[in-house]
From TrEMBL:
CDD domains, A to Z: LPLAT_MGAT-like
Domain Phospholipid/glycerol acyltransferase: residue ranges: 127-242
Pfam family, one: Acyltransferase
Any one GO CC term of the record: membrane
Keyword Membrane: yes
UniProt protein name: Transmembrane protein 68
Stored InterPro entries: Plipid/glycerol_acylTrfase (IPR002123)
Segments traversing the membrane: 45-74
Keywords for this protein: Membrane, Transmembrane, Transmembrane helix
Keyword Transmembrane: yes
UniProt GO MF annotations: acyltransferase activity
Length: 338
């Protein structure tokens, strides 16, 4: 029937224009293009559904790219300053300050980053900074940048073993004094007068905590024993809206099983939302010879970090609310809500 109609159309054309129009319809039907509009509508629907998903999973990889760009800069810096190495013991000071400035700028532009209580970080001498671990501890990177810029100090850091197995990260970890966490190395860093940052929750807290900001410290007390052995103060730290910036799918059963069974931190991370970040430093907890490591870890330090969460984070966290806080001129304290 369609072919007969098209033939009639062609034979019945009165002029050249009518003939061309009719010929186009014949070709459209032959090529199946009459369904093109339906295909385009379906494609538009797919883009509308999947584009946000692609974006929220893509942004975390941008952080990894920034880290690799940092490593590239260090390699370039090293090559250009080989002659200076023989005459200076501070080859990497310029590189650290430059990267600190870049990360500080990133925090200010993307997250409106603020830090409250920086005066509690000593200008000299050792101290142990204990912090809540986000899905990506980007707030800690910003904190390290502030310590370098404002205090002129390099804060040593404890990181999980898997970070040392990532190709290309070795130079970055060395330059920024990152260690994998044996107590002997931690004690050595503090006794040499350095600052030391550690998250007792580590990878487990990064993967399994969520917008409720639950701590995953378990019975870990090694960091407390280090503080006791070195007789140094402990400074608690927490960043508001950290989980709204980046979130993890580690709460899904599959990823939790993989970690518990094989110690593989493979849970996907999504986000990169430009939410407001505010880091709060609590009052230093002084050395007390009358308290043991278990009591210091559970009753004092964990309680101090939890107190910062209760005071400064509205529970559960909200991405929309955290985005709107970018427009606030003053920070607000929130009481913990169940």
């Amino acid at each position: 029937m369609a072919d007969s109609g098209n033939q009639s159309c062609l034979l019945g054309s009165q002029d050249t224009l009518s003939f061309l129009v009719c010929l186009f319809h014949v070709w459209e039907e032959w090529a199946g293009l009459e369904q093109l509009e339906d295909y385009l509508s379906f494609l538009e629907y797919l883009l509308w559904v999947f584009t946000p998903l692609v974006v929220v999973f893509l942004v975390p990889f941008l952080i990894v790219i920034l880290l690799y760009l940092s490593i590239l800069f260090l390699h370039v810096y090293k090559r250009k300053n080989q002659l200076k190495e023989a005459y200076s013991n501070n080859l990497w000071d310029g590189a650290r300050k430059t990267l600190a400035t870049l990360w500080d700028g990133h925090g200010a532009i993307w997250h409106g980053y603020e830090i409250h209580g920086m005066e509690k970080i000593p200008n000299r001498g050792p101290a142990l900074i204990v912090y809540y671990h986000g899905a990506i501890p980007i707030d800690y990177y910003y904190f390290l940048a502030h310590v370098i810029i404002q205090k002129g100090r390099t804060c040593h850091s404890v990181a999980d073993h898997f970070l040392f197995k990532i190709p290309g990260f070795k130079l970055l970890l060395e330059v920024f004094s990152v260690i994998h966490g044996p107590q002997e190395e931690c004690v050595r860093a503090l006794r040499n007068g350095h600052l030391l940052g550690i998250s007792p929750g580590g990878v487990r807290e990064a993967m399994f905590s969520d917008e409720t900001y639950r701590l995953f410290w378990g019975k870990r007390k090694g960091f407390a024993q280090v503080a006791i052995d070195c007789q140094v103060p402990i400074i608690p730290m927490f960043t508001q809206n950290l989980r709204e910036g980046f979130r993890s799918l580690g709460t899904l059963r599959l990823f939790r099983w993989l970690y518990e069974r094989f110690r593989l931190p493979v849970a996907p991370i999504y986000g990169g939302f430009p939410v407001k970040f505010r880091t709060f430093l609590g009052d230093p907890i002084p050395y007390d010879p009358n308290i043991n490591a278990a009591e210091l870890a559970e009753r004092v330090v964990q309680q101090a970090v939890q107190s910062l969460i209760d005071k400064h984070q509205q529970i559960p966290g909200s991405i929309l609310r955290a985005l709107l806080e970018r427009f606030y001129t003053k920070h607000k304290d929130f009481q913990h809500q169940n």
